[in-house]
Amino acid sequence: MSANTGANTLGRGDSVTSPMTSDRTRYEPGTLGAATLRGRRPPQQSLAWSRMKRGAARQGVLFIGIAVILAAGGIAYDVAGGVNPLSSALFWGPLALALGLAAALVRELSRNTVTSLSSLGKHRGYAVLGAAPELTDRALRQLPPDQRTPLGCVAFQPASNFATAFRDLQSAMTEDRFVSFIGALPDEGATTAALCTAVAAQQQGRSVVIVDCDIRRRSLTKSFGRNPDYGVLELCEQPDAWREVVEEEEETGLHFLAAARPRNPWRSIIGSPGFGALIRNLRSEYDLVVLDCPPALASAEGPVVAAMADKCVLVTAWDRTKLNSVRSAMRAVQRRQGLRTGVYVNRVPPQFRFGRLRPD
Prior knowledge:
Elements: H1 34-39, H2 47-80, H3 85-109, H4 117-123, E1 128-133, H5 137-140, H6 150-156, H7 161-171, E2 178-183, H8 190-203, E3 208-212, H9 219-223, H10 232-235, E4 247-248, E5 255-257, H11 274-285, E6 288-292, H12 301-306, E7 311-317, H13 323-333, E8 340-348
Parallel strand pairs: 1-8, 2-6, 2-7, 3-5, 3-6, 7-8
Antiparallel strand pairs: 4-5
Helix pairs in contact: 2-3, 6-7, 6-8, 7-8
């Protein structure tokens, strides 16, 4: 996706004030300006090289463990049989390293995760809606301490690559009024993607409401710092009273319906006949209704709720979500005929190109 660094060339006497925040300057006179930072950016890395480094970090413990155990065991066995320790080490050392490396390579290559847009779109046949860069600590440090969150980055750094990625995503769904976001498994960024897309749409002048449909985990509700006694599930019993329950995020003005603390573990949105009426009421009032759904492969409720929307976005995490999980989640969601689906990839390392992304 197209990303805009948003950095303007600065003279030595210029300074940039962070929009919608305090008067804190991002570049003080006499320090590195944006043009200098652009000139000193590290060269972009290839996908293969980046994955190799991440794989080495991920499988390093396995490699070292197998090599040490095998070498130590072989040398101890030989020494007990009267073999010279140095001769034994010269034999078992290279063998242990080779076997440890082979085991690490097999484990890494068998992960078969999302690391390419083309593998999803061209070869798998999925509609790829784009990708978002990983939100690094370096990017968060440019925000005030109380705003160092994905929501704060989208709201107060609209020119950043992270914010631009979600602004482009919502631009791709300007004709959609009812969109659901779902991940294959927990902690793959579906809640963050739903929230950031809703805020981006709000910034573009659309009236938006986001609904926390994951009444078990309540990730969206917790991201707003809420813990209400009355939420979406209770509202299904009185769907016409939604105006009394909807809340507004202080900084962005985004409207949201939170999920209350669960009282009965057996109750669900699927079994609540008033949920459909609630959605109809919201659609008549807002330009865009966004649903944050439970993970597709961790709950039978998630795919059913996600399939109620006009468009479903399956959110995946770069180099974490397995392609088998993507296929299974797509099959679960696409049981409803006519549902338009797409895949969105997030947490892409910013050191290299991915699609049309550019580094920070």
